[in-house]
Predict the 3D structure of the following.
Amino acid sequence: MRAAPFFPGQTMSTTFCMSVDDTSLYFDVGKLTPKQQKEDEESRDLMGFLQVVLIGLGKPADHVAMYDAFGKAPWPERLARYTDFFNRMGLTPVPPEHRHLHPKEEFYASVARNLPPTDSITLYMTSGTNSVLHNDPEALRISRNVNSKFHFAEHAPKFGIPVPETLVTTKAGLDSAEAQAFVAKHGPKVMLKISGLAGARNVTVVDSLQAAKDYVAEFDGGIAVLLQQRLDFSDWTEMTADYRITDKDITIANVRQIMFADGVWVGNLIGPDVILTEAHRKELMKVAEYARAQGFVRPEGINCGVDYFIKGDDVMVTEINARWTGGLFPTEMLRRVGATHESAIAFVDMVRADKFDRYLGFIDEHLYKETKGPFAVVPLGCSPIPQMVAGAESYLSWQVITGDFEAFKQARRDQLGEGALMRADSIRLGLG
């Protein structure tokens, strides 16, 4: 069975199988540091809401692998409500009998033992933890290369890709004269990156070499460290895009503006206000050609993302993500439900346990295609794994708001109050 991060909308039947993958590209998951273990667990918890949105993005012939926590009350009833939402928005969701529950801690091994008879497996990315599904050492090697910050830093200039000035070194190399000169030239703040999880984990801003050494203190001296010029966020806007790469062509499927709340990534601005100029397109196509040159290509179409900054027509590329990206899910959902004519804000937030059913009622009242109000909600998904926020059991939610976002904020305050989608009030655009 074929397995890859296939681009959505395949005609072939697929088993969607997505959980946390990034860490095992470069690390032995049995030998993680305490910080890595914590981040790996947090990332695994997040993946629950990807599994829910795949119910809506899939088709009746597809199957979705899900955490077994979705089988415990009250989550079956809540999944039924999401299915109802998807139907009412005009989707043809994956039916309940094609949703398969697996333990979170041995997710891929369990899926491998119980694979449905589909044409393909769609993975979040090709990684070590899901090798039991793809069984493809060459695809794993390619994924490691294309997703590597360090491989990209070394090879991007050969493809004419504009990137911020970068120094590749090691933890031990942070004491070198070269590292000192780099910080002196690009300080007082520079970016520090090491291999790790998605969502800006193991990417940070440091204001000195001592701060850099403190950040990587738990790793051995040989671990690769990347120092990079930090772009001025008052001049540059952070963006992201998805490509569909086949053996015949490359398509830029979408572009989104990165969105922050209190300096932390929470989602994307999507829609006609997000402009892709011809100058941007020219530079971005170089990144896709770089990915295809490394062997990241499938005849059926494979998904690849890129993070970049724009200033007028100028582009600076900071990272390539050879996988499904977080912004691909809401972008594809908006396309499927016909909500591409106006800008929309997709964001991740928390809902307190005692507010979750009220939150679903809020969606019901403001559901896209049915509401007549100034805004509408396109529900994406949720995770059944409890999180403790300010001492209260809470759950991750993911949604898109179309129309008047300020009207949504006021309705949220009036109808949900404290403990539900609180992050929405602090969402700002273009903040570093």
